[in-house]
Structure formats: C-alpha cells, structure tokens
Write a structure and sequence with these properties.
Elements (H helix, E strand, L loop, with lengths): L4 E7 L5 H13 L3 H4 L2 E7 L10 H11 L13 H5 L3 E4 L2 H10 L7 E3 H4 L22 H25 L2
Parallel strand pairs: 1-2, 1-3, 3-4
Helix pairs in contact: 1-7, 3-7
C-alpha cells in the first residue's frame, strides 16, 4: 500500500508565509505528474489562532501574480498529531525550527527551514539567512516580495523532490 508523503509548512500565525507556501506548493504540484500522487501539503502556525483566515495581502499577492486562490485557507495551530503525521516539516525561520525541535525532539530529523532544505538545489548559493522574513502588517508590495521569494523556494523544492523520487 502506497501512502502519500505529507509536507508541513510552518510559520508563526499560519496566515501569511506558511499559507502562501502551501498554496504555491499545491499549485506547483498539480502540474508535476510524477509527484502529484506522492505528496500532499498542509500548513500550521506555532502561535496560530485556529480558524483565522489567510491575511488579505497574502490572498491578494498570490491571486494577482499567479492566479492562485488561498481565500479558503484557515489557520491551524501546530499539534503533536500534525508533527507525527508529517514526513517533512519546513519552517519559515530558524527560530520556528528550534521551537519545534525543542517541543518534539524525536522529530528533529524531519524538521528544516525551507531555505535549508532546498539549499542543495540553490546553485547560486547566495542565501545569507535561512529565514523568510515575515510580511505581517506590511504593505502589499512586501507581501508580493515574500510571495516571489517563496515561489522561488517552492520551485527549488519541486526540483529536489523530483531528484529524490527518480
């Protein structure tokens, strides 16, 4: 019996970065035949308020640039079950990773920052930080910059998954 691998994207409130990363990943996955039946995605927040919608600027950034609709997204708190049921946990910052590893030490081998996880696919190697900066409360232009950065990272993630699954 083949089971899908679950990738969990994690940020603070699950209304900006991780919700955009999940939306971008799902969108990218839909067009990759060899991966779309192997992977599923979800997102959660370290300090999320369950049921909060994605931020209006996150929704607008993805919709205006790529036509991706995350308006139905609802924030979810990171739970023990979520950690247990995920194959790969990709955080937006080093501190998110540290919090998860501290709370769930047995899961340490599957927790990475998104940038750290795709670093081997990033041929230009210009990362100066493993953090994706939180656009929360910023103008739409900053959300769009964050979305563009996440799109680049998700594209690298798709490339890595293709390579792993050859």
């Amino acid at each position: 019996m083949f089971s899908m691998k679950k990738i969990l994207f994690v940020c603070t409130g699950n209304t900006c970065r991780s919700s955009m990363a999940e939306g971008l990943f799902r969108h990218a996955l839909a067009s990759v035949e060899e991966l779309k039946r192997q992977y599923d995605a979800a997102s959660a927040g370290i300090a999320a308020l369950d049921g909060d919608p994605a931020s209006p600027n996150s929704i607008e950034a993805l919709k205006s640039i790529w036509g991706i609709d995350i308006s139905s997204h609802r924030a979810r708190s990171l739970t023990k079950e979520e950690v247990e049921n995920s194959d790969i946990i990709l955080t937006m910052t080093r501190s998110h990773k540290d919090i998860i590893v501290s709370a769930f030490p047995h899961a340490a081998s599957k927790v990475f920052t998104l940038k750290e996880y795709v670093a081997d696919e990033n041929k230009d190697g210009k990362e100066t930080s493993y953090d994706v900066v939180d656009p929360y409360g910023a103008p739409i232009s900053i959300y769009k910059e964050c979305a563009e950065e996440l799109k680049r990272l998700i594209d690298l993630l798709i490339e890595k998954l293709k390579r792993i699954n050859r």
